[in-house]
Design brief:
Structural class: alpha+beta
Number of domains: 1
Largest sheet: 9 strands, mixed
CATH superfamily: Gcn5-related N-acetyltransferase (GNAT)
Radius of gyration: 15 Å
Strand content: 25-35%
Number of helices: 3
Distance between the termini: 31 Å
Number of strands: 9
Length: about 160
């Protein structure tokens, strides 16, 4: 049920994000990342009722991934679809040369997937956000010299 997105999915993806968030920011961000070529197509995954965007990022000169936006159709929320999408991204990202996945998210939700505060690994966010909301997940390509500032793709506000 979970697979990489295709152009045939784009209208439905926009509708899912537009319905899941009160502002159009996330739906537009997904499209802007795609238009700029800053998304990672094989890691932008769809489910019949959800979507997760994964984009190129970096920790100084080290390649990294940014997770999000992620959205689930409001009718199907709290049924594990978001968790399935996150697990699928992590599984697929394990087989890449990216060093880690970074995100700003709820500090009690994402640790169940292995995310931990970026500060524990010496990785800072450019966003002024609570430190517990800035999290990273090291991937197999991660080494201890991956430290510094996490930079999202330019489409991020």
């Amino acid at each position: 049920m979970i697979r990489p997105e295709t152009p045939d999915d784009y209208a439905r993806i926009r509708a899912i994000h537009a319905g899941a968030f009160p502002q159009p920011l996330e739906a537009q961000l997904v499209e802007d990342l795609r238009a700029a070529g800053d998304h990672v197509p094989e890691l932008c995954l769809v489910h019949p009722h959800g979507h997760v965007m994964t984009s190129k990022a970096r920790v100084d000169d080290h390649p990294a991934l940014a997770l999000g936006p992620i959205a689930v159709d409001t009718t199907y929320q709290r049924q594990g679809i978001g968790s399935e999408l996150i697990r699928a991204v992590i599984e697929r990202a394990q087989h890449t040369d990216y060093t880690l996945i970074g995100l700003l998210g709820h500090p009690t939700y994402y640790p169940r997937f292995g995310f931990r505060p970026g500060a524990e690994l010496g990785i800072e966010s450019t966003y002024d956000a609570p430190s517990e909301a800035w999290m990273v997940l090291p991937l197999p390509a991660y080494t201890d010299d991956v430290r510094g500032t996490f930079h999202y793709a330019p489409a991020f506000p």
